[in-house]
């Protein structure tokens, strides 16, 4: 299975979050991920959270990058133990946001009355894997979602939560 890597530059402006979502939806469609598919909804939420963090917390331009499985219409998603060259499952979608800020991302635990501060908690709950690393003077935060498992529908069911984590 081939992968498609696409990226866009994001200005340090909150309006860029909406632009990033629209751009990502069009790129997901190219890889065979329908906009009404639960996977697309999950990925758009993850993209929104990571881009928002970069725009709001750093004040720096950023680069959003998607690594998508490229498949033709009607081709089944990856089954079994198939792997990409980087070791990820063949159907994995990777989202990365790189920025020039050296400030490390910080997962917060906020009370239910808080109106913000849940971005990385959402990423942790919805992605199969996520992390970050320093890159030059800045950093790159990333998350991956394996295409072969159901999303959103089971993400919040306690009985399924453990099975959704790697």
The run of helices and strands is: EHHEEHEEH
Which CATH-level-2 architecture? 2-Layer Sandwich
State the helical fraction.
Answer: 25-40%
What Rg is obtained from the alpha carbons, in whole angstroms? 16 Å
What would CATH call the homologous superfamily?
Answer: Histidine kinase-like ATPase, C-terminal domain
Largest sheet: 5 strands, antiparallel
Distance between the termini: 22 Å
Q: What's the quaternary structure here?
A: single chain
Q: Spatial order of the strands in the main sheet? A: 1-2-3-5-4
Question: Overall pLDDT, averaged?
Answer: 80
Keywords: ATP-binding, Kinase, Nucleotide-binding, Serine/threonine-protein kinase, Transferase
Protein name: ATP-binding protein
GO molecular function: ATP binding; protein serine/threonine kinase activity
InterPro entries: Anti-sigma-factor_SerPK, HATPase_C_sf, HATPase_dom
If you had to describe this structure to a student in words, what would you say it looks like?
The chain is an alpha+beta fold and 166 residues long. The chain has a single domain, classed as Heat Shock Protein 90. Helices cover 29% and strands 25% of the residues. It contains 4 helices and 5 strands, in the order βααββαββα. It has helices at residues 16-30, 38-58, 119-126, 158-161, and strands at 2-10, 62-70, 92-99, 129-135, 138-146. The chain has a 5-stranded antiparallel beta sheet, covered by helices on one side. Strand 4 (129-135) and strand 5 form a beta hairpin. Helix 1 (16-30) runs antiparallel to helix 2 and helix 2 packs antiparallel against helix 3. The chain starts with a strand and ends in a 5-residue tail after the last helix. The model is unreliable at 72-79 and 151-166 (pLDDT under 50).
């Amino acid at each position: 299975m081939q992968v498609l890597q696409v990226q866009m530059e994001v200005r340090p402006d909150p309006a860029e979050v909406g632009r990033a979502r629209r751009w990502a939806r069009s790129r997901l469609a190219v890889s065979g991920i329908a906009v009404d598919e639960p996977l697309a909804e999950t990925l758009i939420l993850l993209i929104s959270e990571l881009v928002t963090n970069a725009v709001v917390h750093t004040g720096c331009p950023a680069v959003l990058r998607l690594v998508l499985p490229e498949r033709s219409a009607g081709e089944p998603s990856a089954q079994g133990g198939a792997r990409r060259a980087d070791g990820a499952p063949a159907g994995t979608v990777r989202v990365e946001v790189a920025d020039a800020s050296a400030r490390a991302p910080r997962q917060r635990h906020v009370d239910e009355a808080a109106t913000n501060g849940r971005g990385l908690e959402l990423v942790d709950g919805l992605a199969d894997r996520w992390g970050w690393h320093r890159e030059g003077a800045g950093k790159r935060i990333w998350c991956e979602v394996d295409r072969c498992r159901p999303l959103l529908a089971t993400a919040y069911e306690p009985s399924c939560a453990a099975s959704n984590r790697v």
